Please model this.
Amino acid sequence: MTDPVVSTAWLADHLHDPDVQIVDASWFLPNEGDRGRHAYVEAHIPGAVFFDIDQIADKTTALPHMLPTPQAFAEAAGALGLKREAQVVVYDAQGVFSAPRVWWTLRVMGFPRAAVLDGGMPRWRAEGRPIESGESPAPKPSKLEPDFHPELVRDLAAVRQALTGKAQVVDARPAARFRGEAPEPRPGLRSGHMPGALSLPFGQLLTAEGTLRPAEELRAAFEGAGVDLSRPLVATCGSGVSAAVLALGLARLGRADAAVYDGSWAEWGQPGDTEVATGG
Model:
């Protein structure tokens, strides 16, 4: 597949294919409570395994759901039965929100056939497609060797360099948070944005039905935000989740090389020597 998303109709047709693996990546903002697994247990697509981004994460840092080491990821993904040769389809309970984060993580960790379910669980349920509830049986583990693609990840030092003009940094947070007019959902963080960053709230990449916009509309959204699609790109957000929605949209435009700042504002916005700007 060249498109990074698959339709609900496609997944329904291939639901029981042995080559297709389904991952529930439901996650909610901190001020919404720890509801990811609850949403999965309440209702999930048949055969889906639950990928907890807060657990399959680097436990040596206080930053939220940072990428684990390649070895730790291989062990966790193997415990879920995931296989690199499979067509992995990722969805979430909100539509297209946290699923792209897991799609991006899979790509970083060497899964070339990952895709996002367009419209996620809301669209799947609205169409009356089959769902299950409760905990699923433990999957048959798979054996995975570590693999890592560092070109898709940026850390704080790399973002500092990007902001000198080496790349464009595009912020997926809501505009009011970017401008510093609304507080961050995580306590203790400063409000505002990185000087020189561009603002493109991730919701602008989605249709009213919660699906990813077609390519021509995505192109218009990025260019309307001042993004030069021919230049290097780094996506950022609050904690590296909705930034992956920007990466998903860029992949639809043929820019599958766009990177995500893993620490995002959860790291940059802490009290310290990182510069913060406010306003438009």
Q: What stands out?
A: The chain has two domains: 5-148, 151-268.
